[in-house]
Protein backbone atom coordinates (compact mmCIF):
# COMPACT_ATOMS: atom_id res chain seq x y z
CA UNK A 1 0.00 0.00 0.00
CA UNK A 2 1.65 3.21 -1.10
CA UNK A 3 -0.61 5.87 0.35
CA UNK A 4 -3.29 6.40 2.91
CA UNK A 5 -6.78 5.87 1.52
CA UNK A 6 -9.20 8.67 2.24
CA UNK A 7 -10.89 8.41 5.58
CA UNK A 8 -14.57 7.49 5.41
CA UNK A 9 -15.28 9.95 8.21
CA UNK A 10 -15.46 13.72 8.16
CA UNK A 11 -12.22 15.65 8.70
CA UNK A 12 -11.30 15.07 12.35
CA UNK A 13 -11.04 18.76 13.11
CA UNK A 14 -14.75 19.19 12.55
CA UNK A 15 -17.80 17.40 13.91
CA UNK A 16 -18.24 14.00 12.32
CA UNK A 17 -21.51 12.71 10.92
CA UNK A 18 -23.93 11.09 13.32
CA UNK A 19 -23.55 7.74 11.59
CA UNK A 20 -20.65 5.57 12.75
CA UNK A 21 -17.87 4.24 10.56
CA UNK A 22 -17.63 0.53 9.87
CA UNK A 23 -14.60 -0.68 11.80
CA UNK A 24 -13.14 -4.15 11.64
CA UNK A 25 -10.55 -5.77 13.87
CA UNK A 26 -7.25 -6.48 12.12
CA UNK A 27 -4.08 -8.38 12.99
CA UNK A 28 -0.75 -6.88 11.93
CA UNK A 29 2.81 -8.28 12.07
CA UNK A 30 5.06 -7.33 15.01
CA UNK A 31 7.31 -5.20 12.77
CA UNK A 32 4.48 -2.68 12.45
CA UNK A 33 5.29 -1.57 15.98
CA UNK A 34 8.39 0.08 14.56
CA UNK A 35 6.43 1.44 11.61
CA UNK A 36 4.16 3.36 13.99
CA UNK A 37 7.15 5.16 15.47
CA UNK A 38 8.66 5.93 12.07
CA UNK A 39 5.40 7.44 10.84
CA UNK A 40 5.10 9.41 14.09
CA UNK A 41 8.46 11.05 13.36
CA UNK A 42 7.43 11.76 9.76
CA UNK A 43 4.19 13.42 10.85
CA UNK A 44 6.12 15.46 13.42
CA UNK A 45 8.53 16.64 10.72
CA UNK A 46 5.63 18.06 8.72
CA UNK A 47 4.14 20.19 11.51
CA UNK A 48 6.67 20.28 14.38
CA UNK A 49 5.59 23.61 15.85
CA UNK A 50 1.87 22.92 15.65
CA UNK A 51 2.12 19.45 17.21
CA UNK A 52 4.57 20.50 19.91
CA UNK A 53 2.33 23.45 20.64
CA UNK A 54 -0.63 21.13 21.14
CA UNK A 55 1.24 19.16 23.79
CA UNK A 56 2.52 22.37 25.40
CA UNK A 57 -1.05 23.66 25.64
CA UNK A 58 -2.10 20.49 27.42
CA UNK A 59 0.87 20.73 29.80
CA UNK A 60 0.06 24.35 30.70
CA UNK A 61 -3.59 23.40 31.21
CA UNK A 62 -2.48 20.52 33.43
CA UNK A 63 -0.38 22.89 35.55
CA UNK A 64 -3.38 25.19 35.92
CA UNK A 65 -5.58 22.27 36.95
CA UNK A 66 -3.07 21.15 39.57
CA UNK A 67 -3.48 24.50 41.30
CA UNK A 68 -7.02 23.46 42.24
CA UNK A 69 -7.01 21.26 45.36
CA UNK A 70 -8.13 17.66 44.62
CA UNK A 71 -10.63 18.73 41.93
CA UNK A 72 -7.71 19.70 39.70
CA UNK A 73 -6.21 16.21 39.88
CA UNK A 74 -9.55 14.64 38.98
CA UNK A 75 -10.02 17.03 36.04
CA UNK A 76 -6.50 16.31 34.81
CA UNK A 77 -7.03 12.55 34.91
CA UNK A 78 -10.35 12.95 33.12
CA UNK A 79 -8.66 14.98 30.38
CA UNK A 80 -6.03 12.32 29.68
CA UNK A 81 -8.13 10.18 27.27
CA UNK A 82 -8.95 13.34 25.31
CA UNK A 83 -5.22 14.02 24.93
CA UNK A 84 -4.64 10.77 23.05
CA UNK A 85 -7.74 11.16 20.90
CA UNK A 86 -6.93 14.81 20.23
CA UNK A 87 -3.53 13.85 18.87
CA UNK A 88 -5.09 11.16 16.68
CA UNK A 89 -7.29 13.85 15.17
CA UNK A 90 -4.29 16.17 14.84
CA UNK A 91 -2.27 13.50 13.02
CA UNK A 92 -5.15 12.94 10.62
CA UNK A 93 -5.26 16.65 9.90
CA UNK A 94 -1.52 16.75 9.21
CA UNK A 95 -1.92 13.88 6.74
CA UNK A 96 -4.54 16.02 5.00
CA UNK A 97 -2.00 18.88 4.77
CA UNK A 98 -3.91 20.87 7.37
CA UNK A 99 -2.59 22.53 10.51
CA UNK A 100 -4.12 21.21 13.75
CA UNK A 101 -5.17 23.58 16.50
CA UNK A 102 -6.30 23.18 20.10
CA UNK A 103 -9.81 22.61 18.73
CA UNK A 104 -8.92 18.92 18.32
CA UNK A 105 -9.28 18.50 22.08
CA UNK A 106 -12.89 19.69 21.98
CA UNK A 107 -13.88 18.04 18.68
CA UNK A 108 -14.82 14.70 20.34
CA UNK A 109 -17.33 16.54 22.54
CA UNK A 110 -19.05 18.22 19.59
CA UNK A 111 -20.55 15.14 17.99
CA UNK A 112 -23.86 13.57 18.97
CA UNK A 113 -25.02 13.77 22.57
CA UNK A 114 -24.63 10.00 22.90
CA UNK A 115 -20.97 10.04 21.86
CA UNK A 116 -20.22 13.06 24.00
CA UNK A 117 -21.75 11.38 27.04
CA UNK A 118 -19.83 8.19 26.35
CA UNK A 119 -16.56 10.13 26.08
CA UNK A 120 -17.26 11.80 29.42
CA UNK A 121 -18.05 8.40 30.94
CA UNK A 122 -14.71 7.11 29.64
CA UNK A 123 -12.93 10.10 31.13
CA UNK A 124 -14.63 9.58 34.48
CA UNK A 125 -13.90 5.85 34.51
CA UNK A 126 -10.23 6.47 33.71
CA UNK A 127 -9.90 9.04 36.49
CA UNK A 128 -11.59 6.77 39.02
CA UNK A 129 -9.46 3.75 38.07
CA UNK A 130 -6.26 5.81 38.26
CA UNK A 131 -7.15 7.12 41.71
CA UNK A 132 -7.86 3.57 42.90
CA UNK A 133 -4.46 2.45 41.56
CA UNK A 134 -2.80 5.30 43.44
CA UNK A 135 -4.55 4.38 46.69
CA UNK A 136 -3.66 0.70 46.32
CA UNK A 137 -0.02 1.50 45.51
CA UNK A 138 0.19 3.81 48.54
CA UNK A 139 -1.14 1.00 50.71
CA UNK A 140 1.53 -1.34 49.34
CA UNK A 141 4.44 1.06 49.91
CA UNK A 142 3.11 2.27 53.25
CA UNK A 143 3.32 5.90 52.19
CA UNK A 144 7.05 5.74 51.40
CA UNK A 145 6.52 7.20 47.90
CA UNK A 146 4.73 10.25 49.30
CA UNK A 147 7.45 10.61 51.94
CA UNK A 148 10.14 10.55 49.25
CA UNK A 149 8.31 13.21 47.26
CA UNK A 150 8.12 15.44 50.33
CA UNK A 151 11.85 15.02 50.95
CA UNK A 152 12.67 15.95 47.36
CA UNK A 153 10.37 18.97 47.47
CA UNK A 154 11.87 20.20 50.74
CA UNK A 155 15.46 19.96 49.50
CA UNK A 156 16.47 17.38 52.08
CA UNK A 157 20.14 16.26 52.27
CA UNK A 158 21.15 13.62 49.69
CA UNK A 159 21.85 11.08 52.43
CA UNK A 160 18.32 11.34 53.75
CA UNK A 161 16.86 11.06 50.24
CA UNK A 162 19.03 8.00 49.49
CA UNK A 163 17.90 6.33 52.72
CA UNK A 164 14.24 6.91 51.87
CA UNK A 165 14.76 5.66 48.30
CA UNK A 166 16.33 2.44 49.60
CA UNK A 167 13.12 1.42 51.38
CA UNK A 168 12.06 -1.99 49.92
CA UNK A 169 8.40 -1.00 50.26
CA UNK A 170 9.04 1.81 47.78
CA UNK A 171 10.10 -0.72 45.13
CA UNK A 172 7.03 -2.92 45.56
CA UNK A 173 4.76 0.09 45.56
CA UNK A 174 6.35 1.33 42.33
CA UNK A 175 5.98 -2.11 40.73
CA UNK A 176 2.32 -2.20 41.73
CA UNK A 177 1.75 1.28 40.32
CA UNK A 178 3.51 0.57 37.01
CA UNK A 179 1.90 -2.85 36.50
CA UNK A 180 -1.64 -1.67 37.17
CA UNK A 181 -1.13 1.48 35.09
CA UNK A 182 0.06 -0.66 32.16
CA UNK A 183 -2.96 -2.94 32.50
CA UNK A 184 -5.29 0.07 32.68
CA UNK A 185 -3.87 1.49 29.46
CA UNK A 186 -4.98 -1.58 27.47
CA UNK A 187 -8.78 -1.05 27.55
CA UNK A 188 -8.39 2.74 27.26
CA UNK A 189 -5.80 2.69 24.44
CA UNK A 190 -8.30 2.72 21.57
CA UNK A 191 -11.55 3.30 23.47
CA UNK A 192 -11.88 7.09 22.85
CA UNK A 193 -11.22 6.59 19.11
CA UNK A 194 -13.70 3.72 18.95
CA UNK A 195 -16.34 5.98 20.44
CA UNK A 196 -15.44 8.91 18.19
CA UNK A 197 -15.20 7.08 14.87
CA UNK A 198 -17.10 3.88 15.59
CA UNK A 199 -19.91 5.21 17.77
CA UNK A 200 -19.36 2.39 20.26
CA UNK A 201 -20.70 2.44 23.80
CA UNK A 202 -18.68 2.52 26.99
CA UNK A 203 -18.27 -1.19 27.67
CA UNK A 204 -18.07 -2.13 23.99
CA UNK A 205 -15.23 0.34 23.36
CA UNK A 206 -13.27 -0.91 26.38
CA UNK A 207 -13.71 -4.51 25.28
CA UNK A 208 -12.85 -3.78 21.64
CA UNK A 209 -9.73 -1.86 22.67
CA UNK A 210 -8.58 -4.75 24.85
CA UNK A 211 -9.19 -7.21 22.03
CA UNK A 212 -7.36 -5.00 19.53
CA UNK A 213 -4.28 -4.68 21.74
CA UNK A 214 -4.29 -8.42 22.51
CA UNK A 215 -4.64 -9.44 18.87
CA UNK A 216 -1.68 -7.21 18.00
CA UNK A 217 0.36 -7.73 21.16
CA UNK A 218 3.48 -8.54 19.14
CA UNK A 219 3.43 -5.12 17.47
CA UNK A 220 2.76 -3.39 20.79
CA UNK A 221 5.64 -5.23 22.48
CA UNK A 222 8.00 -4.19 19.68
CA UNK A 223 6.67 -0.65 19.91
CA UNK A 224 7.22 -0.54 23.69
CA UNK A 225 10.75 -1.91 23.43
CA UNK A 226 11.71 0.58 20.74
CA UNK A 227 10.30 3.49 22.71
CA UNK A 228 12.20 2.33 25.81
CA UNK A 229 15.41 2.18 23.77
CA UNK A 230 14.78 5.68 22.37
CA UNK A 231 14.16 7.20 25.79
CA UNK A 232 17.19 5.52 27.36
CA UNK A 233 19.35 6.46 24.37
CA UNK A 234 18.19 10.08 24.55
CA UNK A 235 18.98 10.25 28.28
CA UNK A 236 22.46 8.77 27.72
CA UNK A 237 23.11 11.19 24.87
CA UNK A 238 22.18 14.17 27.03
CA UNK A 239 24.41 12.90 29.84
CA UNK A 240 27.28 12.45 27.40
CA UNK A 241 26.86 15.95 25.99
CA UNK A 242 26.72 17.41 29.48
CA UNK A 243 29.94 15.61 30.35
CA UNK A 244 31.72 16.66 27.17
CA UNK A 245 30.74 20.27 27.73
CA UNK A 246 31.89 20.06 31.33
CA UNK A 247 28.55 21.48 32.47
CA UNK A 248 26.34 18.80 34.06
CA UNK A 249 24.02 21.59 35.23
CA UNK A 250 22.94 21.91 31.59
CA UNK A 251 21.48 18.39 31.65
CA UNK A 252 17.91 19.52 32.51
CA UNK A 253 18.09 22.11 29.70
CA UNK A 254 18.95 19.32 27.25
CA UNK A 255 16.48 16.75 28.53
CA UNK A 256 13.42 19.03 28.71
CA UNK A 257 13.15 19.94 24.98
CA UNK A 258 14.17 16.46 23.86
CA UNK A 259 11.56 14.93 26.16
CA UNK A 260 8.93 17.28 24.75
CA UNK A 261 9.80 16.25 21.18
CA UNK A 262 9.75 12.51 21.94
CA UNK A 263 6.45 12.84 23.81
CA UNK A 264 4.94 14.71 20.86
CA UNK A 265 6.12 12.02 18.43
CA UNK A 266 4.68 9.32 20.69
CA UNK A 267 1.23 10.92 20.72
CA UNK A 268 1.42 11.59 16.98
CA UNK A 269 2.08 7.87 16.41
CA UNK A 270 -1.08 6.78 18.26
CA UNK A 271 -3.18 7.39 15.15
CA UNK A 272 -1.31 4.63 13.31
CA UNK A 273 -1.86 2.12 16.11
CA UNK A 274 -5.60 2.70 15.71
CA UNK A 275 -5.83 2.52 11.93
CA UNK A 276 -3.68 -0.63 11.97
CA UNK A 277 -5.93 -2.36 14.49
CA UNK A 278 -9.38 -1.22 13.38
CA UNK A 279 -9.41 0.63 10.07
CA UNK A 280 -7.57 0.26 6.79
CA UNK A 281 -4.05 -0.53 7.97
CA UNK A 282 -0.93 1.59 8.13
CA UNK A 283 0.82 2.14 4.78
CA UNK A 284 4.51 1.34 4.42
CA UNK A 285 5.10 4.90 3.25
CA UNK A 286 3.08 8.03 3.99
CA UNK A 287 1.67 10.08 1.10
CA UNK A 288 3.76 13.06 0.10
CA UNK A 289 2.75 16.31 1.76
From TrEMBL:
Keywords per UniProt: Membrane, Transmembrane, Transmembrane helix
InterPro entries the record matches: BPSS1780-like (IPR047798)
TM segment ranges: 48-67, 73-95, 120-140, 220-244, 250-274
Keyword Chloroplast belongs to the record: no
Keyword Transmembrane set for record: yes
Name of protein: BPSS1780 family membrane protein
Amino acid sequence: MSSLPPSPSAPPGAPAPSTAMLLHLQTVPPRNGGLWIRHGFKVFQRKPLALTGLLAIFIFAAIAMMLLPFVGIVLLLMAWPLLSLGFMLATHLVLQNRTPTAAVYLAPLKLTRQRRNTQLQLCGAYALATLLISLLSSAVDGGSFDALQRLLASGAPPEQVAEAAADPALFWGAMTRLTLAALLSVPFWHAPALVHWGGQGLMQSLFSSTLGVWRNKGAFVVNSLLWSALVIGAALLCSLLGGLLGAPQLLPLLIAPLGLVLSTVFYASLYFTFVDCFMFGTPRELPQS
